[in-house]
Amino acid sequence: MLEGILLEGSVPSMASLQTAYISIQMANDVQEPNCDRRQLRHMIESKIPYVEFHKAKRVNEPDRVSIKASRDAAISLADDVQKDANEDMKILYKAAAVLRNAIKTTDRWNLSGSFTVKDNQMPKKLYSFF
Question: What global pTM score does this model have?
Fold first, then answer.
C-alpha cells in the first residue's frame, strides 16, 4: 500500500504513516496498538529498499518519506524550470544592453520649440523598439 503511494509521487510524513499504521492495528483487533516511529522506519526500510527519509527543516515537524525516483524527478523538473527562467532572463539582459548602447550613442535632445526629432537623436534601433 505504501509503496503504491510512494510510486505515485506522494511524500507522506512519518506522523501520518504512524497514525495509519495504528488505525490498521486497531481495525485488526490488536490488543495494544502502538508503534514507535523508529520501529515503523525499520519496517518500511526492510520492505521497500529504495525508500528515503528526509528530515524536516523545523524540529517540531515529522520526517518525510519518499523514493529516489520521485526525488530525481523533482530535481530534474526544478532544473528545467530554472533553465527556462535563465534563458528568458538572458534574452531580457541582451535586449536591455542593446537599448542602453543605442541610447548612449544618441545626441542629446534640446528643446528648440519644435518636436521634430533628427536621426542622430533617435537611432533606428531605438525607434523600431518603440
Answer: 0.47
CA distance 117 to 38: 78
Same domain, 27 and 55: yes
* Distance linking the first and last C-alpha atoms of the chain: 61
- The range of the structural domain enclosing residue 94 comes to 90-129
Half-sphere exposure of 112 toward its Cβ, with a 13 Å CA cutoff?
8
For the CA atoms of the chain, what is the radius of gyration?
A: 31
Residues 31 and 65 in one domain: yes
Q: What is the DSSP letter of 93?
A: H
**Rounded-to-integer distance, Cα 52 and Cα 95, Å:** 45
The DSSP bridge partners found for residue 44 are none
Which grid coordinates belong to 45? 526500510
Q: What digits encode the pLDDT tens for the residues 29-64? A: 888 877 788 888 888 888 887 888 878 788 888 888
CA distance 7 to 70: 7
